[in-house]
Structures are given as C-alpha cells and as structure tokens.
C-alpha cells in the first residue's frame, strides 16, 4: 500500500475524536474469549474510508475488514477472482466492461443504520460517482480529495459508470487500458452503501459516512481508541459466511520490539512488520510460526526534482554515487531484503535485471558535484518517517547512515521527521529536499509502480514524491497501457526504466521481504500478493 496524500488533518482529527467519544471500549483484548484474534498493528489508521486514503495501515483497518471490492485476487496469487462481481465481459474494442453483480449480499447494520435492501448496482454507481463528480453531494465531504482515483488517471479514463439493471453495471472507458480490471481490486474501489449515504444526508449527518463507516465486509467496527486499539466484531451475514474469529482487535503498537514482546507473551496472536534484527529469535521461538514471502514493494530515496540543486540530474546522480546501498540493506534489513536494482521489484514481470544504477563511488560523486557547480557541496534536508513500514523498518537509522555518507562528499544533510500522516501531506506539497519513501504494490501490475510513482499526473502528491514529470517517460507509460499484449507492454516498460535511470528522480534502495510472525494457534492466514493483512478466512484454536 501503498505510501502514499493522506486525508486532510481536520478529517483525521475528527475521525479519531468522534470515534473515540462515540464508542466505549470493551474489556482488554488479552483476556478475551478464545475466538478472539489480536493483531499487533504498527500504527493508527489515517482514516477508515479507503477512497480517501493511500497507506497500508489504513487499508488494513478499513478496506480489508469493513468493505469488499468488485474483484479480488485469489489467496496468495495475482490471479483475478470474483468478489462482489461474479463475472465480467470486455467489448472487442476494450472500452466497455460489463460486470454481473453478486445477488443477496448484505450491508452491515451498524451505527443505528438498518439497510432495507441488498447490495446492487446503485452502490457501485454511487461509489465511483462520489469520486468522479465534483457536483456529487458527497464529493466534498471530508475534503473532496480522492488520491488514488486521481492518481490512477481515472478522471480522464473513466467515461461513465451506469446501472444496466439491479445486478449489472457497465464501465465505459475513453481509451483501452490494460490494467482496468486489476484496478478494481484496489482498496480505493471498496464498495460503499448508497442507501446509508442517503439516510445520513436526510438526517444532516453526511460527515458520519466517513467517520462511522460500514460496508459489506467480514467485520463491523465496534470501537476505536486512537493510539490504543480498534475493535471489530464478525459480520454474521457476510456473503462468504461468518468469520471464524470474533472479535478481531487491532492493538496499536508502534514499536516493533514491543510488538514482538506482546506476541511472545500471548497478548497478540499475529504481528505486523517485525524488526529484522529480531527475526532469528522469532523464528526459533516455541509456539510461533513465521510466513515469509518476497515483497511486492520498493524502498527509495526521492529527490525533489523541483527544488534547488536537486533540479540538476548530475547532483542527483552524485548523491546516489555517495551511498553504499548494499551496506544500508545489510544493516537495516538483516537479510530480510534484497538491494534494489531498479524501480520495479524482481517479482514484477516487467522488471529489468540489467539496469545500471549508480554504484558506490565517493570520488566520482565529488567530481560530479564539482562539475555541477558545487565543489564544496551544499546543505539540504533529508526526511525520514518515524514509524516502521513494510518496505523500510527503520527510516531514521537509514537516514543517519545516508547523512554520514553524504558528509564525506561535502553534502550537509539535516534530518527532518513528522508523524506519518503529516509526513505524507508535506511530501505531497514538496517541502522536502530528499525524502525516504516506499511503495507496496496494489495490483501486481508494472504500471502501479512506474505510472503511479513517476508520472506527471502524480506531481504534487506524495505518490510522486520526486515531483518528477517527463513527457517522454509519460508517453512510454501511456503506450504500455494502450495494449493488452504483455510482450509489447514489456518493451515500453523497459524503455521507461532506462529513462528512469537516466533522469534518476529517486534512488531505489531495497525490496523487503514480507514477514508475518504469528501464534501456532492461528490457521488460514495467507500473505496476500499485496502488502496488506486480511483476516476474513482466519481461524484460531
């Protein structure tokens, strides 16, 4: 998920305050019934409405618990599978997608709302119209910012979403797009209730739509205490069947060492993002199992290409030459990552293993800085987020190592940090010089990295943290999207990756493994193809 603008600060504060006041927390999860699963999560969600968010922490707590999407991936694979849509047809020209909807799917009756009908095409139309139509009654609620919808170029791509009948919906595109079905699996496309929205609008409580969320997902929200926990109950009428775990508790635990201590003590049964330095102890601990999988992610150092010396590609290359990336990966990840050789993870089919990124060479860095007009170096800010992320467990420590290496070539870096949501917002505004960032893929497609993170459409969002815009690069990405032939798409993406190396808007650092430690009592958990956690099929002894 996903690094990527957060909901506005006012919405974030309102979400926390309103939910904390509105619901009383029940007894401590550690003493709960045997069916309880406690997940030691890494932080607070920025919000609980997926259309407004960009980060995996929020998606874990919202789209993978409260909501469903039209399509999904088969567990552990990148193969498309039916979800709220049972089948789909694509027109010969690639412009019209007709989806048949699942019948009898129930919305949650939560927060006093009692649905009078099952899920149907009206809910799909509402979900996308809210994001697409600036005149829609709910568009401006919670700030009117839909970062994924905008960044996926859907305002230009999606001509219309129409109801054919109660159980059929039609998407019409302005041009063919090879990733469209995969895009429907993404968190921002989680389906919401048009009836719930209409009820709140009549009652003058439209803001509650995002503050008191409900969907068709496997769990219903019971309580949220910021900084402490989220509590969910199993949704008995879920179309896949009632989940085996009830309740589900997210114990918010920012420190990875504390998460491990709580797992070891039995206070949680599954944890997020272990400290790589703890992995040997975790894997040898009794009654603990560990799932590991190559991650669909990249950690990188973004250079703000609109700011000061970093506008010069020679300066960006010099800064890259000064960094020993292999040493960074050894120190930070303790064997749970590989050094990145390009912007795409090796698990993505368009990855180019022959790319030649700058190799560590401080002398070459000094010469290049002098050639660019900075023989004595310069000063800049180096931003590092404070929390652990799936792609980078210790950004501050990595920033300190980069700071020391830059100092050896005369570049003086001041490390800056903010709370995660604020960090994303400020990076989106371009306040940084250089910033440690990362991305967890959403749908397994190369465009989700090369397009989402580097195209002109993403400038002035945290997803394009380099604020990089190259029309040549954009044309290559557009060419790849215009055909469904994978060999042709790969040729476009290989050229785009070479252009990336030439311009170097950011320096790829690492591809982290996804490592999920859990109690041996947990069964049915499978690491998804994307870096999120889903508990609908999990059971516990």
List keywords for this structure.
Dipeptide-binding Protein, domain 1, disordered N terminus, 541 residues, 2 domains, five-stranded mixed β-sheet, 29% helix, seven-stranded mixed β-sheet, Dipeptide-binding Protein, domain 3, alpha+beta
Q: TL;DR?
A:
This protein has 541 residues and is α+β, with helices and mostly antiparallel strands. 29% of the residues lie in helices and 20% in strands. It has 18 helices and 20 strands.
Describe this structure in words.
The chain has 541 residues and is α+β, with helices and mostly antiparallel strands. The chain folds into 2 domains: 9-252 and 520-540, Dipeptide-binding Protein, Domain 1 (Dipeptide-binding Protein, domain 1, Alpha-Beta Complex), CATH 3.90.76; 297-514, Roll (Dipeptide-binding Protein, domain 3). Helices cover 29% and strands 20% of the residues. It is built from 18 helices and 20 strands. It has helices spanning 9-22, 56-61, 121-132, 147-151, 154-157, 180-183, 194-202, 208-211, 256-264, 279-284, 313-321, 325-333, 362-371, 395-407, 420-429, 447-450, 471-481, 486-503, and strands at 37-41, 71-73, 80-82, 85-90, 96-101, 158-165, 168-173, 219-225, 229-234, 248-252, 270-271, 288-294, 297-303, 337-339, 379-383, 412-416, 434-440, 506-519, 522-523, 539-540. The strands form 5 sheets. Strands 12, 13, 14, 15, 16, 17 and 18 form a 7-stranded mixed β-sheet that branches. It has a 5-stranded mixed β-sheet with strand order 8-9-10-1-11. Strands 4-5-7-6 form a 4-stranded antiparallel β-sheet. Strand 15 (379-383), helix 14 and strand 16 (412-416) form a beta-alpha-beta unit. Helix 11 packs antiparallel against helix 13 and helix 17 packs antiparallel against helix 18 (486-503). The protein starts with 8 loop residues before the first helix and ends with a strand.
């Amino acid at each position: 998920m996903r690094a990527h603008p957060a909901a506005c600060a006012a919405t974030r504060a309102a979400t926390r305050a309103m939910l904390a006041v509105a619901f009383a927390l029940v007894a401590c999860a550690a003493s709960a019934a045997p069916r309880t699963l406690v997940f030691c999560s890494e932080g607070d969600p920025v919000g609980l409405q997926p259309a407004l968010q960009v980060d995996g922490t929020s998606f874990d707590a919202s789209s993978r618990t409260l909501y469903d999407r039209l399509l999904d991936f088969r567990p552990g694979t990148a193969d498309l599978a039916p979800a709220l849509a049972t089948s789909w047809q694509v027109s010969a020209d690639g412009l019209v997608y007709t989806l048949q909807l699942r019948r009898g799917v129930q919305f949650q009756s939560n927060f006093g709302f009692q649905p009078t009908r099952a899920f149907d095409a009206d809910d799909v139309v509402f979900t996308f119209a809210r994001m697409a139509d600036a005149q829609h009654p709910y568009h401006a609620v919670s700030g009117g910012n839909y970062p994924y919808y905008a960044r996926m170029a859907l305002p230009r791509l999606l001509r219309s979403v129409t109801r054919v009948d109660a159980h059929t919906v039609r998407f019409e595109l302005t041009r063919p797009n090879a990733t469209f079905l995969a895009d429907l699996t993404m968190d921002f496309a989680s389906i919401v209730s048009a009836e719930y929205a209409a009820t709140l609008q009549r009652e003058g409580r439209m803001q509650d739509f995002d503050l008191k969320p409900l969907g068709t997902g496997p769990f219903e929200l019971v309580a949220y205490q910021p900084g402490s926990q989220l509590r969910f109950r199993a949704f008995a009428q879920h179309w896949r069947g009632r989940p085996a775990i009830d309740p589900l508790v997210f114990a918010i635990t920012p420190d990875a060492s504390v998460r491990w201590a709580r797992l070891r003590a039995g206070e949680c049964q599954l944890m997020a993002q272990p400290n790589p330095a703890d992995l040997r102890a975790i894997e040898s601990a009794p009654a603990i199992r560990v799932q590991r999988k190559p991650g669909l992610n990249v950690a990188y150092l973004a250079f703000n290409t609109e700011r000061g010396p970093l506008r010069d590609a020679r300066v960006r290359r010099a800064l890259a030459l000064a960094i020993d990336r292999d040493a960074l990966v050894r120190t930070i990840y303790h064997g749970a990552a590989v050094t990145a050789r390009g912007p795409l993870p090796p698990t993505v089919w368009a990855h180019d293993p022959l790319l030649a990124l700058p190799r560590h060479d401080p002398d070459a860095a000094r010469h290049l800085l002098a050639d660019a007009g900075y023989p004595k170096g310069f000063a800049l800010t180096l931003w590092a987020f404070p929390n652990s992320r799936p792609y980078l467990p210790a950004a501050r420590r990595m920033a300190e190592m980069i700071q020391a290496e830059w100092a050896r070539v005369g570049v003086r870096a001041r490390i800056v940090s903010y709370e995660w949501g604020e960090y994303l917002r400020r990076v989106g505004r371009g306040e940084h010089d250089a910033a440690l960032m990362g991305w967890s893929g959403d749908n397994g497609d190369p465009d989700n990295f090369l397009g989402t993170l580097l195209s002109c459409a993403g400038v002035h969002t945290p997803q394009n943290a380099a604020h990089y815009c190259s029309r040549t690069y954009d044309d290559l990405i557009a060419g790849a999207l215009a055909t469904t032939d994978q060999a042709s798409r790969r040729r476009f993406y290989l050229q785009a990756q070479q252009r990336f190396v030439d311009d170097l808007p950011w320096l790829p650092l690492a591809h982290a493994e996804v490592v999920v430690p859990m109690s041996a009592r947990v069964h049915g958990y499978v690491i998804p193809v994307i870096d999120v956690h889903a508990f609908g099929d999990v059971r516990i002894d």
